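thought: fold this chain, then report.
action: predict
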Amino acid sequence: MKPMSGLNEFEVIELAWKIFEKDKEELLNLDDATAFRHGNNIVVLNIDTFDEETDWLPGMTYFDIGWKSIVMSISDIVVKGANPKGCIISLGVPDNAYQENIIELYNGIKSACESLKVAFWGGDTSFTKTLHLSVVSVGIADKIISRKTAQPGDIVYSTGLFGLTSLGYKILLDNEIYNIGLKEILESLYRPKLIDLEFWSIISKYVNASIDSSDGLAMSLNLISEASNVKIIVEQLPLHPLVYQNVKDDEKAEELALYRGGEEFHFIFTASPSNSYKIEDIAREHRCSLYRIGYVEKGSGVWLKKENKISLIHPYGWTHGIKWEKKNEGSYS
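observation:
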């Protein structure tokens, strides 16, 4: 018998697909979500799980857990082009919880659902040794956006700035002290916000490939590169100014934001240059943040171009089972 310890989430997924056959009618094929046609519509689904032992950060309340669990799942269907409709949950209630705790959790779920204008459809409840909360989100799309369809010549965008969650993890897990903007840093981890859904629904028809950044900046860019079989050149790292202000060393700040983040839930996407001005005009009209960070060309890997020098951005990031580590360096060229 081979122990599971030491395996990461990607390797566990690979074990599954050695046994199961992929459904030819499923449209996304190992992406942020699952999609299939139903009549004239495309139904998009995602399941995401919050587990007490791996996901409960110090200082996080039951309300935060409810909020974040909804955002985690909804993000994955929205980034694929779906209009989110509703969600169901599976809740494992721990023996040591109080009724007030679970009411607080439900209020967090309710608040997130109301903010994102999605319905709550109920679910399943059991009693467990530790808290777990799985959320299944359902949406409808006219067009789905794969991570496999980035094209040479595309512009690469991010809908947000990176590094706040990186600082937050260092504060909460490594006991490091970063005092500048502390409230904003912790808020990014406890109650992450999604992109303006109306804005995304308008520009998504111009998007070629997309992914949400739950695995961190470096890993997310590499996942698009690998899936699309293209090279991504990053010319401008989308780093939050609080990273530089707290770390005070540009190189360390950039490395921290690239490799030690995750769960920002920003969208990283590519679009044809012919559509870039439309997208940027719509962002200005909706007063939504949008950052042009690089471009796509033929080749492989993700590269940082800085002062006429180019360096590899490794496929490292948050991975369940090993936390911040490389995915599988051998699978990238």
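thought: worth noting. Residues 285 and 328 are 41 Å apart (CA to CA).
final: tokens above.
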